[in-house]
Every structure is written in C-alpha cells, then in structure tokens.
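Researcher: I'm preparing a figure for a lab meeting and need a structural model of a single chain. I don't have an experimental structure, so a prediction will have to do for now. The sequence is pasted below. Please return the structure as tokens so I can convert it later.
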Amino acid sequence: MLQTIREERMTRARLIRDAGGLNSAIESGSLAQYIDLSLSEAIVLGLIQQDVKNFVGIFGHGSTEVAEVLRVYEAEGLVKMYPVRNEIEAVHAATALRWVTAEKCAVVTSIGPGAMQAFAGSLVPLSEGLGVWFLIGDETTEDEGPNMQQIPSHEQDQFLKLFSVMGPTYKLHTPGAINTALTRGLVTTEHPIRQSPFYLLMPMNTQPEIIPDFNLKSFPADYPPKLGAAADNGTYLQVAEALLKSERIVVKVGGGTIKAGAELLEFLELTDAVAVTSPLVPGLVPYSNPRNMMVGGSKGTICGNYAMENADLLVAIGTRFVCQSDCSRTGYPNVKKVITINGDVNTALHYRKTTALVGDIQATLSGLNAVLREKATDQNDQSSRWLQDCSKKRQDWEAFKQARYSSPCLYDEMWKKEVLTQPAAIKAALDWARDNQVVSFFDAGDVQANGFQIVENERYGQTFTETGASYMGFASSALLATAMTKQPFYGLAFTGDGSFVMNPQILIDAVQHRASGCILLMDNRRMAAISGLQKDQYKEAYATNDSVEVDYVAWGNAIKGVRAGDGGFSVESLLEALNNARKHKGLSLVYIRVYSGDDPLGGMGVFGRWNVGNWSKETQALRHKIGL
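Model: Understood. Here is the structure written out token by token.
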C-alpha cells in the first residue's frame, strides 16, 4: 500500500512538471481530475497552486508525512525545501523573502518546541503585515493519550487555542476540510490591506489519510480583490478644506503607504505639509526632499519631533501608531484635527478628533489629490513659514549628525582604547551599501535605533528595519532570503553582539544554501539600548552587560565557507573590510568593536517621550491632558 502511494505520488509530480503545472496536466488529460489523494499531498499541491513553492524549517515526528511529499515534489523541481537549524531563523528568512521580493514561503515545523519557536518568530510578519504560511505539526485527533511534545493537558486543541490568539488558525481535524483551510489561508496571507501569518495545524494522524475522489480542480484560486478608495459623500471636500486652512500640517507615513509613493509626494506639495516617516519606509519620501523630516518618536530626529510637537493638523497614512513612534500618544500636543487614511477601521479611529478615510490608500490619496488640485492656491509654495521652520530644525539635525560623524572614534573604558562609535560605523556602512546596491537589514537594539535615525535613502527598498516586534536576531537570519529568491540580491545585516548570539545559525545555513551577504557585527558587550534606558530612568545600568570575551572572527572562520575578518578601528579600515567581504562568494562576517558610554557623541540621542518605567506616570498624565 505504502509503495503504491509513493509510486503514484512520484508519477503525479512528474506529470505536473512535464505539463508545466497542475491545471495543464488535467487539461491535457495526462492527470485525472478526480483521484485518491493524501491530505499531506493536498496541502502541498494547494500551496503550489497559490505559488507557494519555497518551504523552510525543521522536520520532526510531527511533520514526517508532509516532509515525504515535499521530498518527492522537490525531486521534480516543483518546490524547494530549505532545512535550517532553528525555527525562529526559518520565520525570519521567510519574512525577509516576502518583504524584500514579495515571494511567498511556508515555514514547516514539528509539534511542541519547534512549533513554539515558530509561534514566537511569527511576531515579526504579524507586526509588519506580511503573509507567511505556517505548517505546524499537531497532536493526533483520536486522543489515544498524550502525544509527545503536545501541550501537557487534559484538554483538546490546545495548540489551536494558542495559535488562534496570534492570528488566523485552522486545524485539519477533518481531511475533507482542506479547501476551506486553503481558502482562509489565501485570504489571510494575500489580504489587500494588511497581510498576516496563517497557521495551518496538521494533526499527525490526519496527514497521511486518503481523501477519496478528490477534485484537483477544487483548489482555491481566487485572490482577494483590491479594495477601492474610501467612500466620498462629501468627505473629500471637507478634508480638503480643512487641509488648506491649516498652517502646520504633519503627515505621519507608515508601512501601509509603500504602494502610494507618488501620490504621497504630490499630497505633500498640495497641502504644504512635511512628512515624518516610520522606520519601515525610509526612502519612500526621498531623503533629499526638503519636506522629509525623517523619523519621529522616542527615537526620532530633532526635525521629526519638532514637526510632531508643533503641527496643528495630523494626517496619518497607513500607520499603526506604535508607542515609540507617537510617543505613547503624546507626540502631537498641538494638533486640533486628525485625518487618517487607512484600510483598517480600528486603526483609522485610533485618535479622537478624527475624520477617517477608510479604503485603499493609493486610490484614496489619488482621489483626495484630485480635489486638492481643484481647491489649491498659490499659498502652498516652498517658502511657507511652516516649511522654513521645519527646514531650520532639519539643518540642526544635519549638524547634530555631522558632529558625530566628525568624531568617529571615542575612548572606551572597557576596550581600553579608542574604537568606532555606532553612528560613524553605521553611516559609513549604509553609504557603502547604497553605493554598492546592497540591501540592508537592521537588528533590534541600539544598532537598530541608531540606524533608522541615520539612514538616508532616496528610494524605498534599500533598508529593512524590523521595528514592530523588534526581534533580536532578525537581521542575520534574514540573509538566508538571498539564497531563496529568484531575484538575487546581496544583503548586509547590521547586528550587535547580543542580537547575533540569539540566532547565529546563519553561519552554517548560509553556507549550506549558498546565501550571499555580510554580517556587520558591532560588539560593545552589552545591551546598549537597555543600558542607556536604565541610566536615563534610574541613573544605573543593571544586568545588561557581560565580561565574556568572544572571538567572533575565529567563530566565523571556524565554519568552512564563511569569510570572517576584523573591521579595525577606523572608518577606512571598516570600508576596506566591507569591500573584501563583498568579493567573497557566500557569507562574510565583519567584526568591529564599538563605543558604549556616556559621551553624547557616541550615539544619536533620544528626543521624545515613552510610556515605560518611571516615565509612565508623567507620560500618561500628558496623554490625558492632551485628550487626542
């Protein structure tokens, strides 16, 4: 019986390959429309029909049946499996692939600890709005006794309950429900406004069950339609009039705006507004554009936070109002009116005093711009008082940054010598990446915060900063996406020592799968972002550093195929190391020691409020006073 199933499966995969796809194989008559098919094969075929052909993860006893199907289909070139050494790494790689190239991917795990690792990692695509499939092994449905690695409890469907808290989840208790599961996953991962992870739970005993007379033409194929512009009913004119009457407009640009770059730039000109961007969208408003005030919030810029603090009208486009980004709802103390453009009703009504335009952002902006063009006057020029005031603050910010770049090295008490500061190192590496068409990824922590304050992109897609979950270990793991894509690119992972050691498996998996990139590892032997926060709040750092010496260069070179080198103690030596790394075909690691201390030239500073620690009482009181 097993031999027959295996031979039939191999024959099907070959016929599908030769015909150029499942539908072609059926239409040509080489493959019958109705066949006996295992649930596991139906899952794989259904995902192929949705153009999910990349799979990454770790197999275990909870996923051996799906693994066998993938083995057969990979042998015929229909899918590609990337086995890795950590499920969190797998999720980061799948997320980066979808983020950078829009290519789809499914993460495969076993039951138990592997599933939990993937569950934790899925915070990233959930936070950033990216559609990733999760194929999760689950306990058997006949409840014959506790399954090894299930959640130890005398209740049913514990994984279903757990994963459902995170997002849309479906348990394949009944094989005949496969197309419902695939449809819900399609809608979730291809949602027109905000994509999300989809968790498909696969009980170990239902995976190999045969579905008799399965209709191969019944797989879901209809993608969710794109939403239209927000309804008008006179609202566009009302919004346009409010915009043209306001003197100090700030536009908060979030990750939902990436498809509306041209419309956004026109909107800024028509309304004489300035933009404050989230860390997700550097380059969407070109850095050289005088209306770009860069990031705002608790790790914002002088000019970005000035615009937020002094604006009288806020236009929030495609943004979730994350706490640090809007200073825990205190970032706009003088705003009297809010206009939101978003596809999600709850997000659109986050603030009081809001007129919400709910619909597709690009289409809505296009319609609003048309009304503004009819109503606009010559008052919206490049010499307005608001733009002048913001531009002066931008000049202050440029001078602030230049002072740090002009002092690239500082004496560090721990290293007992002068070492590079993070601002100088990140600036040099970002410029190098931009000049060499390299895609940059930023890890969580101090590296990330300094990074998005420094980035100077002229177009979107050069830098990816995972800020929603702020997941340490993301950047290095993301480099695996360079091996999975059909659109080759070279990646540079900016990471600190703390983030790197949380997910160092890329050193092995990059070689195995021929990834192409470089890890820029900045070592200060501490969680500098938290140390700084502790000092700001309580005057003392606690349990956020160590005295353990690690030879990261030796660690990298211990993996055959990795090229690791020291970036030295100057900008020039760092650039030389990066150039040498770029010549290596595969993964490289460049190690540098960086400054951590109290000298203000050693970091990019903090310019906003945040509801955290002993700042909470004051921040909350201000929020209630503002009443926005």
